[in-house]
Amino acid sequence: TVDASGRGASVINSRDVTEVFKRTGEAVKHVFHDYVRTEAMIPMRDGVKLHAVILKPSDMKDPLPFLIQRTPYGVDGTSRGFFFAARPELARDGYIYVGEDIRGRFKSEGEFVMSRPMADHKDPKAVDESTDAYDTVEWLLKNVPGNNGRAGFVGTSYPGFLAMAAGIDPHPATKCVSPQAPMIDVWMGDDFFHNGAFRQTYGYDYVKAMESSKETSEVDYGKKDGKPVDGYDYFLSRGSFEEDLKQSGSKELPTWKLFLEHPAYDSTWSSRGVEHHLNEVQVPVLSVGGYYDQEDMWGPQSEYNSLEPHDDKHENFLVLGPWRHGYWSSSSRHLGNVQYGEPIGKEFRRDIEAKFFGHYLKDESGFNLEDTASFQTGSNKWMRYGHFPPEGSQPTALHLRGDGNLSWGDVKTPAKTAYTSDPANPVPYRHRPIQPTYGEGSEWFNWLTEDQRFVADRKDVATWKIPVKKDLVATGEVIADIFASTTGTDGDLVVKLIDQYPDDDSDPKMRGYQLMTNEEIFRGRYIDGFNRPRAIRAGDIREFKWSLHDVDHVFKAGHTIVVQVQSTWFPLYDRNPQTYVPNIMTAKPADYKAATITIYSDKDHDSSLQVPLMNQCDAVECF
Ligand code: PG9
Asked: What's the pTM value of the predicted model, to 2 decimals?
């Protein structure tokens, strides 16, 4: 360890940096700076020291701002998106880059707490990710010569949450933050739960990887007959999450314990919900999110929505695109099988991200985002909006009729649609075999773009369709509003909005393809509140209403809109026993029972999706 004044510092030359670029697959012809690399142990207000790597362009003439990324993934290597790998356009612009290991991770002292709750900032001794960011800036300003007195924070996913925390009660020198795919509430809609349904594979895998040691560990489901075990069989044979942990033979890890003991949205989780603190943000925020983010789709959307009412200075910006988790670091022109024609990640990094930091940290010109930039799928073009959803976006009911058809007009004939959901034979969320989340051969990254025909013939998946006669533009939030009953006393509902491509599509890979544009799960026991789980009375018709997130998509004429409803999405989500038990994490084998779910379509129980149409009257023929 050396101090930040440069004593004992090593120089990273441009060739090393080029190597880093190369590893990302990015063809970079020019590298602009050599860097002086130093390390420091930065003292926090409670005496704990955090390990940081500081990279200063060796050719710098004028003072430069700090661009800081705090992370639980280690700052020594180039893994998990340290600046050069994930953000070459920013690296080219010249900043003093700082990467810092958060408490308890890699070379930092202290204890790691998964998505550490916000502390009371009136207490001078309290620490959280916001105070650690503050203390880091304070130390850097005083100890790293050549800075211009300004700092910005950037990060994706966990580091995105850390960037957002740096903007809450920020250090006065912190001038802007860009939280990208931040987890904003790990219970409500990000990594660990969605609307109360537990993300079993993710919760198991990620916690094991992060909490088994100070560094990141591998997760493996083992082998059977010489082949890797399919995660579907692995979790099905184990039953409840409690049983799963028992059989894994692993020691009890702190966040697993939270899952077991706090399955509902109590203060354990709400204290980790960053959205509850966003009225305290006083710096410009550039939130970035993917329409196909398999981990933190909810975070950036809810962050933007929570900040918007307090945005008097118009400094709350949003960028959305058809990316999987963090995929704006790539310059790919496609996601899975879906082609976009242009390297949208590169355009975002060059035209928006680099300009945002240039503007707020160096007073450079060129940042011209008014509010939102969204890459609209279907039409495959960048759109700019003064607000999201834009003016003209109209929530329009798409009704689920009894005959398997959808209709834009009111339902005339009362009807019901029923299916039986059996926890012994749950619907897979992606095609099998299913590897551990981040393991070798895992198709976790692109599962949200998988062709849904792989489950379309199952009897426990209900389907509705409508042909698209004229191009339909949907921009805004999609809401599911489902009237349903069950023969059980608890249950889950999964609703998927799908764009089905025509059988003669010009791209052979896309012929008949069922591409989800929106999808989400809701756990029935939370119908009266996420902190108030309760049994549903068998046979009662109840209204279940929840968000399927934002969309910006053109359903083209000649395509078909499809809605699928099912009650399992396994093993990403644990199985609901469908019999009410106080804690699903500890359910017993006898609790898991098949149930028949009935969806109603009539005047008083109008099951539908609210689709945010931009050209409602024209496209729907003014019904
Ligand atoms: N999505 C990851 C994560 C963040 C926070 C909690 C759990 C997981 C990540 O990629 O950082």
From this structure: 0.94
Cα-Cα end-to-end distance for the chain: 71
The alpha carbon of 64 is separated from its chain's Cα centroid by a whole number of angstroms, namely 32
> Is the C-beta atom of 449 inside 6 A of ligand 1?
no
CA 364, 370, 372, 378 torsion-angle sign: negative
CA 302-381-329 angle, 5° bins: 60
The C-alpha atoms of residue 273 and residue 205 are separated, in whole angstroms, by: 22
The closest alpha carbon to 231, from 99, 91, 428, belongs to 428
In a mutational test of the pocket of ligand 1, which residue from 113, 187, 190, 256 has the highest number of ligand atoms less than 8 Å from its CB?
190
With beta carbons less than 8 A apart as the criterion, state whether 601 and 464 touch: no
Any atom of ligand 1 within 6 Å of the Cβ of 186: yes
Distance CA 390, CA 363 (A): 29
Torsion 484-487-492-497 (CA) sign: negative
Amino acid at 136: T
User: pLDDT digit string (tens) for 342-373?
Assistant: 999 999 999 999 999 999 999 999 999 999 99
ipTM of the shown complex: 0.94
The amino acid present at 491, given as its one-letter code, is: G
Lowest mean pLDDT among 178-182, 278-282, 501-505, 538-542: 278-282
Q: What is the DSSP string of 299-335?
A: HHHHHHHHHGGG-TTS-EEEEEES-STTGGGS--SEE
185 lines ligand 1 (CB under 6 A): no
Total Cβ atoms within 10 A of residue 23: 12
CA nearest 449: which of 288, 324, 568?
Answer: 324
At 466, is the secondary structure helix, strand, or coil? strand
Helices (H), 288-339: 298-307
Lookup result for tokens 């945010």: 612
